[in-house]
Amino acid sequence: MKRYLILEDGSSLAGEGLGSSIVSTGELAIETSNFGYQEALTDPTNAGKILIFTTPMIGGNGINAIDYESINPTVKGIIANDVALNISDNENFQDLDSFLKEKNIPAIYNIDTRALVHRLTKAKTIKASIMDTNDEHAFDQIKALVLPKNRSASVSTKNAYAVPNVGKSVAIIDFGLKHSMLRELSLRKINATVLPYNTAVPDIKNLRPEGIIISGGPGKVKEVQGELRPILDNFYGEYPIWGIGLGFLVLSDYLNFQLVELPKAYNGTNYPIINDLTKQIWQVAMNIDCLVLPNSVQLELDQKYYDLHSQLLAGFSTKNKAIATAFNAEGAPGSLDALQIFDDFVKMMG
Which listed CATH number (3.30.420.40, 2.60.120.260, 3.40.50.970, 3.50.30.20) goes with 2-147? Predict the structure, then answer.
């Protein structure tokens, strides 16, 4: 079935439709992972995005029960150069087309993704639609659309829930957490309680946690400051705190570090960072659009992790038992180089 990718600049690209036949509009985002398309599709941080996969082909591995980062994906669509329509005959795997239909996600392939990515490098944000036509009415629709704000509120859990274990107790503020993060905590026997994004300070105190995690998620710092500032005012310096992704940005802003917008958001794997203390280089997964200007840091830090592409600060730990990482330490998709951060956080809790 022929479908069109409509861009707000008035251009369109024709390709083959896959998955759901709905019309969908969102923000174009470049997904640079060469593997792990299922994790990228189900990552809540990608809520509201239409993902452009730069790898030449996706779909060959199918969809499995283990690699979900959330059960109900919130991406608005996917764009690919080519798609493997058939997978091995294994009842434990689902083909990509039927998965997309089931989750009501449209896709379009046979698109020159290299040319599309090149165009995106010259623009900050581009709205796009996957549609059946490319007439004037279609362009009017996309120009009139306003992208939703505070997407983290829409992907956060509505009710608190427990992820029981027998070790340290941790409260997780959910702005769009990934299942693989919970898995790594469980492997370390962490007894976790996942809380909604708008959890009040007394609710956290009643849990008597030994540490707090502010998860990653979609959205901007200013959209979640109101919920997180009271939490940081009450608990920063009292409990170990780990901010991931959006949590990294909020914690950096709270410490008066200057956030610098990246020329193009990092969304994928194999981003090199270096530990300033050990000079060890890790390949990490990131899904973020800002990092910290090193010269703005007026606080003595125990650890500093620099992004080798931009020379900006992509992670740090403070003497007040706080860790902040712009990267996803669990990878998924990505390398496992940064798993040590989970162990560092557990040690902070004593």
Answer: 3.50.30.20
